[in-house]
Amino acid sequence: MPYLVLLRHGESQWNLENRFTGWVDVPLSSKGEEEARAAGAKLAGLTFDHLFTSVLQRAIQTADLVCATAGFTNLPTTRDQALNERHYGDLQGLNKAETARQYGEEQVKIWRRSYDVRPPNGESLADTAARVLPYYEAHILPLLRAGKNVLVVAHGNSLRALVMHLDRLSPAEVLELNIPTGAPLYYELDAEGNVLAKRYL
Q1: Is 29 annotated as a binding residue?
Q2: Which residues are catalytic?
Q3: pTM over 0.85
Q4: Domains along the chain?
Q5: pLDDT tens for each residue of 26-39
Q6: Which end of the chain is more exposed for a tag (fewer CB within 10 A), N or C?
């Protein structure tokens, strides 16, 4: 049975600074680099046929450190902005605590966690899913159905959209879903790509 591993990048510099990041291309923090290496150590016993990442450097850096630590050499890799973090629009670069003081904690939680409410000039999770899921169906699922093992290194919300689809979560259930940085989420799948089991490694 094929397996799919989803990995959110390690802590970025703006995660550390508690800023909305979105499509701003910030690097990993030193802690994020450590998280990526630790994820690589957890994945070292597995074999993968293909790696997918977003085009943002925090995901690419994480994938590079994972591969170096786990000993994955010459792993076929595809990078696509379809897997990028959701675009936070006018919130990008703002401190989350300051934004909560300005707009209210409840409004910021809705912007961050709801399924279909967009931050000003940004994407909702539904918008993010509208690019992530067709990409998954077109490029990743065919590999899984062919019995290939796939590693996806991406972002909190692009992975939330994918987990929502795989786990068949409702918009209400996805509100409380959080994907931690640097923690490999392992899915065992059947020949059609349906989930048989999942766990964090």
Answers
A1: no
A2: 9, 85
A3: yes
A4: 3-200 (3.40.50.1240)
A5: 999 999 999 999 99
A6: N
